[in-house]
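Sequence, please.
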């Protein structure tokens, strides 16, 4: 792979393998979304994802990564990211659950996340989900050669904040390829005093807005993984892995 400022530039074959890895992730998220309902436990979702990885012949990317013990990150309501699946966490009507999923296929990593509603949710909660997803798609639209990385960050932040929501600073998107986390970091806000980096054809990045109803401040629970909003208000999370091509952004994590 070629490099630009420490960022791997992928060729067409490598992007093809990344697209296939991400397709598997998307198919699994499709299945999990259909399974989300009141009365199911988050461990039930974990078991479904583990079985799907076996069926597809892919390895779960998260399990064992820096010691993370599960296939899925299942983050419910005020949990932002990195939530542990649990037999005791039973979903109920009105909850929201963010599911983050990754696989390894032929040495390349797929990574995507979606937030699902459990049954009927209030209109205000649906707005949180809609704005978070819209922020992601607006960010993707900026992922074009010649733009600056922080053009992505700017539109994500502006859309979320203009709708009255907060944008988490502690966790950011990232480059992705043979490794889960590669350069560059992709913040969902514009860092003060940093120049960013020019976007080049061949970059592959995961863009993942994490948007909150209240403060963007974060607290880590005693398991040393689960991140929650400090004010315990709701948070949503959507993520796509995308390739920057001469024709613009190509979303890889589609079924």
């Amino acid at each position: 792979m070629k490099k630009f400022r420490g960022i791997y530039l992928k060729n067409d074959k490598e992007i093809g393998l990344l697209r296939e890895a991400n397709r598997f992730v998307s198919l699994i998220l499709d299945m999990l979304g259909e399974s989300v309902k009141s009365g199911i436990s988050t461990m039930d979702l974990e078991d479904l994802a583990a079985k799907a990885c076996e069926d597809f012949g892919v390895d779960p990317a998260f399990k064992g990564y820096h010691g993370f013990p599960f296939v899925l990150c299942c983050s419910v309501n005020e949990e932002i990211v990195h939530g542990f699946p649990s037999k005791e966490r039973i979903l109920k009507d009105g909850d929201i659950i963010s599911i983050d999923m990754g696989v390894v296929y032929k040495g390349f990593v797929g990574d995507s996340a979606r937030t699902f509603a459990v049954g009927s949710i209030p209109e205000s909660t649906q707005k949180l989900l809609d704005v978070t997803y819209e922020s992601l798609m607006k960010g993707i639209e900026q992922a074009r050669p010649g733009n600056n990385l922080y053009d992505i960050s700017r539109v994500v932040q502006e859309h979320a904040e203009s709708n009255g929501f907060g944008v988490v600073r502690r966790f950011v998107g990232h480059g992705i390829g043979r490794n889960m986390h590669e350069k560059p970091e992709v913040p969902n806000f514009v860092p003060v005093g940093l120049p960013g980096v020019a976007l080049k054809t061949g970059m592959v990045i995961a863009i993942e807005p994490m948007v909150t109803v209240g403060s963007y401040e974060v607290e880590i629970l005693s398991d040393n993984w689960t991140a929650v909003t400090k004010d315990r208000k709701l948070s949503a999370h959507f993520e796509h892995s995308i390739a920057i091509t001469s024709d613009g952004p190509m979303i890889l994590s589609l079924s």
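The chain has four helices and 17 strands.
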